[in-house]
Amino acid sequence: MTAIGALLVDFDGTACSADVTEALLERFGDPSWPHYDELVDRGEIGIREALRTEFSLLSGDPDEMLAFAVERHTLDPTFAPFVAWADERGLPLTLVSDGFAFYIRPMLEAAGLGRLEVVTNELVSEEGRRELTHPNGHPVCVGCGTCKMLAAQRARERYGAVAFVGEGQSDRYGALYSDLVFAKDHLVTLCERDGVPYLPWVTFDDVRAALEGPRELPGPVGPDRCPGWLSA
C-alpha cells in the first residue's frame, strides 16, 4: 500500500458530486456572479474576495437555501465507502473546502458522516446580518478563504505524507504542497501548468485502488511562495 499518512479531500465537486456553492448562486444569486469567478481565473482578485462578494449576492432565506442544498444534492456515492476504507486503515481524512460551507456539516450528517473533520469557511449571523468568515485562512495572505496550503502543510507535520483529492481552482494550492495528488476537471489543467505530478480520477474507487498499490510518492512541489498569495 502507498505510504500515505493522511488524506485531504475537497468538498464541492469532489466529495459532493455537485458544486453546491455554484448551485446556490445559480438558484439564489444575482446573475452577475460568474463575473467574479472570471476575475479569479484572470488573477485580478483572490478567491476570498470573490466568495465574499458572491455571498453578498445571495437573496435566499437561510433555511430555504440550506434545504435546497441538502435535499437536492448528495455526496458522491463512492465517497462513504472510501471513508470506511480509510477508517479501516487508520488513515485520517479531512475535508477542506473554500466554498460557502454552511451546508457541508448538514450534508455529512444526512449521509451518516458527521464525524469527519472539516476545514472550511464559517457563516456567522448577528442581529440579522450574515457574514462569511475565514477561521481557516492564512494569518497573512488573504488570497483564499480557506488556506489549503496550510491544511496540507499541517497534515504533513502531524501525520507524514499527504494525498490530496480535488478538482478545481482552490485545490491548486493544496495540490502544490501535498505528496500525492488526485486531480480531475480544472485541477488537471492547473497541475499540468504548475508541474505538479498527478493521478487522474473519476470516482473514489479510483483513488482507493491507486492507494492500495505500491507507488513512489512524487512529494510536494512546494514553492516558497504560494502562487495565490495576496497581501492585505
Short description:
The protein is of the alpha/beta class. About 40% of the residues lie in helices and about 15% in strands. It is built from ten helices and eight strands.
Instruction: Give the terminus-to-terminus CA distance.
Output: 43 Å
Q: Specify the structural class.
A: alpha/beta
Major sheet attributes: 6 strands, parallel
CATH fold category name of the domain at 6-17 and 75-212: Rossmann fold
The SSE order reads EHHHHHEHEEEHEHEHEH
CATH class of the domain at 6-17 and 75-212: Alpha Beta
User: CATH H level of the domain at 6-17 and 75-212: which superfamily?
Assistant: HAD superfamily/HAD-like
Radius of gyration, CA atoms, in whole angstroms: 17 Å
Q: How would you classify the quaternary structure?
A: single chain
Strand content: 5-15%
What is the strand tally?
8
> Unreliable runs, pLDDT <50, ≥5 residues?
none
3D structure, described in words:
This protein has helices at 20-28, 34-41, 47-56, 62-72, 79-88, 104-110, 148-159, 171-175, 186-194, 204-212; strands at residues 6-10, 93-96, 117-119, 122-126, 129-133, 162-166, 180-183, 199-200. By secondary structure, it is of the alpha/beta class. It has a domain at 6-17 and 75-212: Rossmann fold, CATH 3.40.50. The longest helix has 12 residues, at 148-159. The radius of gyration is 17 Å and the shape is globular. The chain starts with 5 loop residues before the first strand and ends in a 20-residue tail after the last helix. The model has no long low-confidence stretch (mean pLDDT 95).
